[in-house]
Prior knowledge:
The complex is a heterotrimer of chains A (about 290), B (about 250) and C (about 325). Chain A has about 290 residues and is mainly alpha-helical. Chain A has helices at about 5-30, 40-55, 60-85, 90-115, 140-160, 165-175, 175-180, 185-210, 220-230, 235-255, 265-275; strands at about 130, 135-140. A two-stranded antiparallel sheet of chain A has the order 1-2. In chain A, helix 2 packs parallel to helix 4 (about 90-115) and helix 5 runs antiparallel to helix 8 (about 185-210). In chain B, about 35% of the residues lie in helices and about 25% in strands. Chain C is mainly alpha-helical and about 325 residues long. Chain C has a two-stranded antiparallel sheet with strand order 1-2. Chains in contact: A-C, B-C. Chains A and C meet through helix 3, helix 4, helix 9 and helix 11 of A and helix 5, helix 11 and helix 13 of C.
Amino acid sequence: xxxxxxxxxxxxxxxxxxxxxxxxxxxxxxxxxxxxxxxxxxxxxxxxxxxxxxxxxxxxxxxxxxxxxxxxxxxxxxxxxxxxxxxxxxxxxxxxxxxxxxxxxxxxxxxxxxxxxxxxxxxxxxxxxxxxxxxxxxxxxxxxxxxxxxxxxxxxxxxxxxxxxxxxxxxxxxxxxxxxxxxxxxxxxxxxxxxxxxxxxxxxxxxxxxxxxxxxxxxxxxxxxxxxxxxxxxxxxxxxxxxxxxxxxxxxxxxxxxxxxxxxxxxxxxxxxxxxxxxxxxxxxxxxxxx
Amino acid sequence: xxxxxxxxxxxxxxxxxxxxxxxxxxxxxxxxxxxxxxxxxxxxxxxxxxxxxxxxxxxxxxxxxxxxxxxxxxxxxxxxxxxxxxxxxxxxxxxxxxxxxxxxxxxxxxxxxxxxxxxxxxxxxxxxxxxxxxxxxxxxxxxxxxxxxxxxxxxxxxxxxxxxxxxxxxxxxxxxxxxxxxxxxxxxxxxxxxxxxxxxxxxxxxxxxxxxxxxxxxxxxxxxxxxxxxxxxxxxxxxxxxxxxxx
Amino acid sequence: xxxxxxxxxxxxxxxxxxxxxxxxxxxxxxxxxxxxxxxxxxxxxxxxxxxxxxxxxxxxxxxxxxxxxxxxxxxxxxxxxxxxxxxxxxxxxxxxxxxxxxxxxxxxxxxxxxxxxxxxxxxxxxxxxxxxxxxxxxxxxxxxxxxxxxxxxxxxxxxxxxxxxxxxxxxxxxxxxxxxxxxxxxxxxxxxxxxxxxxxxxxxxxxxxxxxxxxxxxxxxxxxxxxxxxxxxxxxxxxxxxxxxxxxxxxxxxxxxxxxxxxxxxxxxxxxxxxxxxxxxxxxxxxxxxxxxxxxxxxxxxxxxxxxxxxxxxxxxxxxxxxxxxxxxxxxx
Lengths: 291, 247, 333
């Protein structure tokens, strides 16, 4: 068990990234019934935008800002106005299918315009190990964990402690009432799309140094985020956070103790069990069913 | 006369609110029992408990002397208990005839004969008879969703009779139906009751409809039975007048 | 145009399409025949999903896994020298049974939850294909899958095997046509449109839900059984989650709940990328864009456009009828 601490830290680090992606996923679901099957590709793309800027000679820090802003423009504003808005009134399923098509489109575009090969991506946390309680722990894991957790904390504070956050929650939970009491619902929904875009860009920045930038890497990420969102609770931000951390840890422990071959099966089994026995998720509240 | 439906001590609460609080009554063969009461007095909840759509928190339901509490609605339907809902519940994309065949098909043969047998389950004749009975001829092949509201309501009621039920529970059959159609509907229900000895329980707000159609009337208020008796007696009952006109 | 003329025109059109499917490919090259055979196979799988999703209203992201189960059954059995027809029987029974079990979650959860349960199943099936080397030969795959002899004819060459696929599609089409016109088909639609009302009419919604899953999955197995001898080599990759997503897209794009939806959807998914090949690397991008634009324009798919047009015409005709009938009613009253 000598590497249990390492495993836990690494698990929490990837888990925190999953949590960021899952939170964005649940935000979209709550405010506009969008099941975004392209969420994984949304994480994959910003890293390539940053790489493209760097190839053009822009310094790393500026490329990061450029990548985040462009993501918010494309994956936030553009996604909402061009895809979600025209399709929302047609129900959940056609929109979900359209996001599947979007996932194919983004993947192929990256393959075509950038590269089909994996590219290395610079880390914003320096490499090396640090001593914690007399053990060496990867600095990168700790840095990612710290950054992801601060993002999640900042978001939770925004949602729960500010009037803007309260307005967003009202818009998500009951748009009709929210509109009556004067919440600008449309603007709040747009805001959640922008926040989601920001979150995926951040996740991209944190995870790409670990797994490299590749057009197909969104598939695994997207699935991890789905599972995190469901396991934690589809309709709760804190559920998505807990689900993300749990899946990250379970994933890393499974890789070490189950078998690398069936590592991916463990989160899936967890998902099936949760859906069958506690469909609202670990921390979620049941959705009312009308007879 | 034997009791077709025996309800004893049915209770249903949602969270802390008791919607139905120990309701008991019998319905005898050939009777038309009217069920009235102010909105929210628990009539529809009582229906849903009797029919297995909701599990009652307490009490027992018997059909023809057999305990049926806890049976699923489809099983109850096969025992000859049928219903309509407060809101229109026809299948808009199917034709009028298809709607009626659907309503009767599970009462014919078994799963295998329904797969390999004729596509109408041998019910085209019965469906057309029902269409004629409810005066929906010339609409047989129309999509149900394209009919007028009153016509859909007739179809909705007609569907409840396709399986040849012994007992039919109708939840506001007259709601939203215009006067001409209402006369038709009442007359048709009375005819089925006469000819087939079918037993009805009818929830309705239209007093004229209830008083002229029903043989007995039960009044509910706040989840309890307030009064039960012949239409005239109930109409004259001071407690009923109080519940309806009081406050 | 009278109703009878219309009916004859429709029959004539159908016969022309069937004749074209039989005779036109005779001078196609090997690749063209392969693509067309693939269309027939994918149509069968999509028809199964259309039954589960389109008619009975149960979302499934596992159809690709059933194609995989069918394909591996066929590959394993026929490389051992067993006949393909036997493999077909085993595939159907196996997929029917697994599909039935997969239907149980649908009795508890609906919509997106059901989608994710089936998605998880799909991933688990893929892991089994990839990891159980002793059975599936893992990532190396199974090669030299033979094509069958039917009625004494070898179907090794592309054209005869295309006819095997086309014939199978024909049989499946007839069976599905029979099914959806039977009381079962009506019960499936009732299950999709209004399960509570269906239940009150004596329809055992549990049993029909499980049946919808089982039969839809079995058709996925049929498609898989043809897929293995078509490609003559299988490995786990084609049966990952994206096949399930592709099949779902075919059903929705063609028109979910329409009988001819899967034919059109599979045509677009299999043939459109081929037609767009002249654009080289851009073809899948253009395909994705085309799907998105179509869904924005008509979320009920291609046949949804047609249906909307027909309904509009019928409503117009009906209101015209009512206008005519009105004066009569008024005089009668």
